[in-house]
TrEMBL record, chain A:
This is Phosphoribosyltransferase domain-containing protein. The lineage of its organism: Eukaryota, Fungi, Dikarya, Ascomycota, Pezizomycotina. InterPro entries: PRTase-like, PRTase_dom. CDD domains: PRTases_typeI. Residues 40-241 form the Phosphoribosyltransferase domain.
UniProtKB/TrEMBL annotation, chain B:
Gene3D superfamilies: 3.40.50.2020, P-loop containing nucleotide triphosphate hydrolases. This is Uridine kinase. The lineage of its organism: Eukaryota, Fungi, Dikarya, Ascomycota, Pezizomycotina. It comes from the Eukaryota. Pathway: Pyrimidine metabolism; UMP biosynthesis via salvage pathway; UMP from uridine: step 1/1; Pyrimidine metabolism; CTP biosynthesis via salvage pathway; CTP from cytidine: step 1/3.
Length: 243, 492
């Protein structure tokens, strides 16, 4: 078991409330990498995380509440895509100086837990193309191994939203990026969306790929002896799909 | 004249007399006393920065009350209905003083069943409760009207609510009797008819509607009705503003009454709009309240706003992007509801110092615009209890009017109430919507108004009057805008 860093305990709530009016909760560990964005630690986000972390939460609630977090991750992720100035005329005949999204995107989920994030992605990007990568631990070498991938043919021309809810050691995420790179996707066009990360996972991943933007809801305290994130939420895929 | 949309009215206790708002039982009085007073609710001055509260009185405060008294059978009720018809307004309530009969004790009750109880004496009426309720209505508050059962000769446990009428007609033989009631009346009418006309009407009515026999009716007339008339009812003519002989056939009197009421309403409307204008002072110079949270204009937010604003966007896209954005608005709104620390056991056998929501969060939709945010609401709280109110601007005066109201029964006990409207321009209807919630016992600091776009002016007005509410806004627009979002969303 590696070293644990206690989560900071902070008052969370809107600015107009005084500190004494805000409840206290454990918030995400700070991150040293500029490429990593942690979602704002709002009371609502902490409450959502509390629900999906609880061992007493049933599968229906787990799906619903994790989906709400995933939507927030996708919304934040999309902020990092390029835009151009775009002026339109409004229904009341006013001119509106806005922005238009530029470039094509696709999602790539790391099976199977990453597939749980596809619904949230689709709720924000209706007909988005979604590729899949299956990476599993090789029993002999205990290292991650690529078993399967199916990606859009023009993936090299797209921005890629890489989906995996749990970033523990970072092994499979790193391997997934290698697959994407081998298909011609440059690092700076990959956005990694993640629900819960360990400090080690962030460290390993972001050191290797400083140009890949990581968006996560929470960086937890560490890993246990089986390399599960702690305090964690258990096995995301199991809780979403089968348990 | 354009017929007014008729406000939906609930069933009435007896006879078709009281048009009354749908009742939701257990409605509490506003927590902090007068809704516009300097409320001292929790959280009001925790950091001592509470803004000075501006005065706002909803258009239904200071309701015009018209008292119509007269002998039994003199045509009060017919006259009241004729006035309502002539006024052609949705906000006129006829309140019969019969609702305020005292519950009878065993002995009196026995007498009552034998036609021996004197219902025609002022002592039979509970004027204290009547005065209280009229004062509440005059203050713009909701009033619970007792329901009296003639079958049981007792007040029933249920009540019916009256809320926000512009005109109230108080009708009954003793409508002009109690001096405290007189003080609250804007117009006092005494209905006059010959005694023989009254008696014959009463015979016909009691035989037809109340299943009494002729002998009993005549006995009651001479034992109670006539002596009481001479002693108590007739003297009321001295305090009346007008005495109307011949009831509804008296067209001149009817026209005068209707003209007078119209004049009163017009004055009030002008006054209300002047108040709204007064609240504009400082809108441009003063910063917005800290409790107004404008969504961060991130690039995705701006992209979505651009699609939503673009007249060339397809309806499909409009609805899709509006739903997506409204879910974000609701997520942001939910940061303002109360939470408490919770120790969470994870499947990993560890604990996490998390949070949980304290109490129920419900929503109230300001129709029609607010319904455009409902899809977003249900993406965040699938089974959210949802109240609705229809507020529409009067086409002539621009004044917002409350047409329909259905709130969750326990709304005053919810930890937070999200008030949803798609757009807020002048703030008139938002002010009214918040006032309605406050009048139904929802604490101001528990209200979170969620709106896609708001004018600076409207935000300023609203937070001046209700400094403790929280407002979550998608974007602040400089000018007053027509309500185009709901038109696009509902495609009509």
């Amino acid at each position: 078991m590696s070293e644990l860093k206690r989560s900071p305990i902070k008052c969370v709530g809107p600015d107009y409330r005084s500190e004494s009016q805000k409840p206290v909760a454990a918030v995400s560990a700070p991150v040293d990498f500029d490429s990593v964005t942690v979602l704002p630690q709002t009371p609502q986000l902490i409450a959502l995380l509390s629900i999906i972390r609880s061992k007493d939460t049933n599968r229906g609630d787990f799906i619903f509440y994790s989906n709400r977090i995933i939507r927030l991750l996708v919304e934040e992720g999309l902020n990092h895509l390029p835009t151009v100035e775009h002026t339109v005329t409004t229904p009341v005949g006013r001119s509106y100086d806005g922005l238009a999204f530029q470039g094509k995107i696709c999602g790539v989920s790391i099976m199977r837990a990453g597939e749980a994030m596809e619904q949230g992605l689709r709720e924000c990007c209706r007909s988005v193309r979604i590729g899949k990568i299956l990476i599993q631990r090789d029993e002999e070498t205990s290292k991650p191994r690529l078993f399967y991938d199916k990606l859009p043919e023009d993936i090299a021309d797209r921005w890629v939203l890489l989906l995996d809810p749990m970033l523990a050691t970072g092994g499979s995420a790193i391997m997934a990026v290698d697959v994407l790179k081998s298909r011609g996707v440059p690092e700076d066009r990959i956005l990694f969306l993640n629900v819960l990360a360990s400090p080690q996972g962030i460290q390993n991943f972001s050191k290797q790929f400083p140009n890949i933007r990581v968006i996560t809801a929470f960086v937890d305290e560490g890993l246990d002896e089986k390399n599960y994130i702690i305090p964690g939420l258990g096995d995301f895929g199991d809780r979403y799909y089968t348990r | 004249m354009i017929p007014w949309p008729v406000r939906r009215l609930a069933a009435e206790p007896h006879a078709s007399r009281h048009p009354i708002m749908p009742s939701s039982a257990n409605a509490a009085e506003p927590a902090g006393g007068a809704p516009n007073g300097p409320a001292a609710g929790p959280g009001s001055d925790a950091d001592g920065t509470i803004a000075t509260r501006a005065y706002y009185s909803p258009p239904w405060a200071d309701v015009s009350i018209i008292g119509i008294a007269g002998s039994s059978g003199s045509g009060k009720s017919t006259l009241s209905h004729a006035i309502v018809n002539k006024l052609n307004l949705p906000w006129v309530v006829i309140l019969s003083i019969d609702s305020f009969y005292k519950s009878l004790d065993a002995e009196s009750s026995k007498k009552a069943f034998q036609n021996e109880y004197d219902f025609d004496s002022p002592d039979a009426l509970d004027f204290d409760v009547l005065v209280d309720r009229l004062r509440d209505l005059k203050a713009g508050k909701r009033a619970e009207i007792p329901v009296y059962s003639f079958e049981k000769h007792a007040r029933l446990n249920q009540t019916t609510s009256i809320y926000s009428p512009h005109v109230l007609i108080l009708e009954g033989i003793f409508a002009l009797y109690d001096p405290r009631v007189l003080e609250l009346l804007d117009m006092k009418i005494f209905c006059e008819a010959d005694a023989d006309v009254c008696l014959s009407r009463r015979i016909l009515r009691d035989q037809r509607d109340r299943g009494r026999d002729l002998e009993g009716i005549i006995k009651q007339w001479f034992k109670f009705v006539k002596p009481n008339f001479e002693k108590y009812v007739d003297p009321q003519r001295k305090v009346a503003d007008i005495i109307v002989p011949r009831g509804v056939e008296n067209h001149v009197a009817m026209a005068m009454v209707v003209q007078f009421i119209r004049q009163k309403l017009m004055e009030k409307s002008v006054h209300h709009r002047a108040r709204l204008t007064q609240l504009e002072i400082g809108a441009q110079s003063e910063p917005l309240s800290k409790r107004v949270m404008v969504m961060n204009q991130t690039s995705q937010m701006r992209v979505m706003n651009t699609i939503i604003h673009n007249i060339d966007t397809s309806s499909e896209d409009f609805i899709f992007y509006f739903n997506r954005l409204s879910a974000l608005l609701v997520e942001q709104a939910l940061n303002n509801v109360p939470f408490e620390p919770a120790s969470i056991a994870t499947p990993q056998g560890r604990t996490y110092a998390g949070l949980q929501r304290t109490g129920e969060v419900s929503a109230v939709i300001v129709l029609r615009g607010g319904a455009a945010l409902e899809a977003g609401l249900h993406r965040c709280i699938t089974d959210c209890k949802t109240g609705r109110m229809l507020i529409q601007s009067n086409v002539r005066t621009g004044e917002p009017e409350l047409h329909f109201l259905a709130l969750p029964q326990d709304v005053d006990r919810h930890a937070a109430v999200l008030l949803l409207d798609a757009q807020m321009s002048s703030g008139g209807s938002a002010l009214m919507a918040v006032q309605v919630l406050v009048d139904h016992g929802v604490r101001e600091d528990r209200i979170v108004l969620v709106t896609y776009s708001a004018g600076r002016m409207g935000l300023h007005r609203l937070t001046k009057v209700f400094p403790e509410i929280t407002v979550v806004v998608g974007q602040v627009v400089p000018d007053i805008e027509e309500r185009w979002v709901e038109k696009r969303y509902f495609r009509c």
